[in-house]
Structures are given as structure tokens and as C-alpha cells.
Give the backbone structure.
Amino acid sequence: MSTTTETKSGGGMDGLNKVLVKIGTTVGGVVGTLYQAGRDTIDTVIRNILPFMAFIAVLIGIITKTGLGDWLAHVIEPLAGSLVGLLAISIFCALPVLSPVLGPGAVIAQVVGVLLGTRIGEGDIAPQYALPALFAIDPQVGCDFIPVGLALGEAEPETVEVGVPAVLISRLITGPLSVVIAYFASFGLYSSSN
Amino acid sequence: MPFTPMALAGLPLAADTPTVDPPTGVFGALADAASWFIGLFQAGGETFMGLVTGIIPTLIVLLTFVNALIRMIGPERIDKLGEVAARPGLQYYPVRYLLLPVLSVFFLTNPMAYTMGRFLPEKYKPAFYDSAVSFVHPITGIFPHANAGELFVYLGIAAGITTLGLNTSDLAVRYLIVGLVVIFIRGVLTEIITTRMLARRTTNEEVAA
């Protein structure tokens, strides 16, 4: 008798144990995932985001204090403050010779983005040009990276040979086109005057 | 008790200090130069402080949440979509140049998103790359985890909007939507160009042979 009750209670304990283990694993899994996600995040912030912020801060400090900013504003303003000027920027950035040079790490696009942002903040450029400007400074995105990107997609060398010029030529058309689309999509955006 | 006379004696001394004449002559010029020089970096430091306190806290929480979400869902689930996107036919264009690039960039982030190209036939690979890479900036307005190293294309311009006291959400949403339209057009156009170039290439090879 005593042995049977023992096994019975053991069976009950087994079930309870299973539930406990299940809960423990799930909670542990969720906590572990969140913790790992946090670790990845801090890693990204320290490796990618903070260094770029430091770089941008140095650049902005020098540009605003030396008065270079005002000089740059006179150059950028007529370009970034009109659709034609933005189209000119986008065509320039999309030129097949220049686009792979301007591409790496999107550094140029980011610096120009920050400069334009400062000008928008100062009121030199109307805020409704923010959206088309985002596309005007970026038609070269990834143009430096085409062979690597295609290799990541396990493309054959022949595909890379055709793919590089195909993308570069396509950008020459879609770059300015994206500015026009963004220009029309920005109607009603920050137009406080009416 | 002995502290009070000490403090009282210190007060007139402290009041005397600012009355020292500012340095003139060579040293004055040097001092001006030094303060101008350090001013450059003080301005930079203020900018840096603004960036760190204004952007980093929210960004860290958001990145952690999305990273955890991606780990829980499992990025390998979009592999099936890659196989669907490889099919020929007009109805698969939006899958190939809209759905697949968006999900790849969201789940795999830059630069691993481009590995999804391996499910596609060779002739679609350049177009898919073009489509995916063009989305890595428009997505950062709302989901900065996808391309945390290149946030300032959007953040730079958005900072100006914030300075004016306007809301950046409208800009972020429109950036994303126009981005979707642009990557689709880019995908389709690059596919057409690639097909033409491949065709010309094969005819050239036949002529040569």
C-alpha cells in the first residue's frame, strides 16, 4: 500500500514538476531574450551610434562657431529651397561615376542631412522641403555596396557584372523621380501659412 | 564657532577677484585665441549633449524592444516568403519589390537583409538589392533598429523640424510611405534594365561564338 501511494504522489509531483520546468524555461527564455536584446542594443549604441554622434558634434561645433555655417547656407539655400535645386542635387548624387564614391556608410548623406536640418531649424529652408530633401540627398544609397550586397545574395559573378551598371543607371532615373514623388507627397506637410 | 570668522574673512576676497583686468597685449591675444578655440568644442559638446540626451534614451528602449521581438518571432520565418517572391508573373512584383525587401530590412536589418536575395533567380537579384538598400533609410524614421549606424540622414533633417517646434511623426510616416513607393519603382525599373543588359550580353556572346 505504502509503495503505491508513493508512486501515485510521485506521479503527481512529476506533473507539477513538468509545469514548473515549463514555466521556468519560458520565463527564462523571455528574460534571456530581452537581456540579449539589451546587450545587442548597447553594443550598437556604443559601436555605431555614439561614434557618429561624436563626429557630427565636432563638425557642427566647428561649422556653427567659425561662421562656415552661414557661408554654407548661402550655397545650400537656393538649391535645397526649391524643387529644381533639389532635382539638381539628386541628379548630381546619382551620377554613375559619383554615386559609388558618395555612398560609403552614408556619411555624406548624413552630414548633408544634418546641415540641411540646421538650416531648416534656422528657418532658411521651408519645412515642407524636408521630405523631398530626404530623397534628394540619398539617391546614391548603397551604390558603393552593390558587389558585396549581391554577393550576400549569393549572386553569380556574371550577375554582379551586369547588376552594378544596372543599379547605377536605374538610380539616374529613380533618384530625381523619388524627389518629384516626395515633393508631391509633401503637400499639406508643415504648410502652416494656409 | 571658528568657522564663522573664516567665512567672513573669505567673503571680501571672493568679491575682489573679478576686478582683475582682462589680459592685454600678446597674452591677451593668446587668451582670446584660446577661448575661441575651446569655444568651437564647447559648441560641439553642447550639440553632443543634446544628441545623447535627446535621442539615445528612447532609442535604447525602442531598439531593445524590437530586437527582442525579432528574436522571439525568429527571422528564419521569412525564408518562405523569399521562395514565393521568386515566382515569375505580374502578381509577384509587389511581393518581390515591396513585401520581401520591407520584411528583410525589418527583421534582418542592414546589411544582412541582402542575403534574402539568395532565394531569387539571378535576373532578379540586382533589382531586389536595389529595392532593399533603398529602404534602409526611409525605415529609420519609425524603426531605427533596422539601420542604427546611419540614422542621421533622417535624424539630421528631423532635428530641424523639432527646432521649429513641429511634430516629426508626420514626416516619419510620409518618409516611410514615399520610401515604399520608391523602392517598388526602383525594383521594377532595375529589373527591366537588368533583363535588357543580360539579353544584350547573351546576343553579344552568340555573335562572338
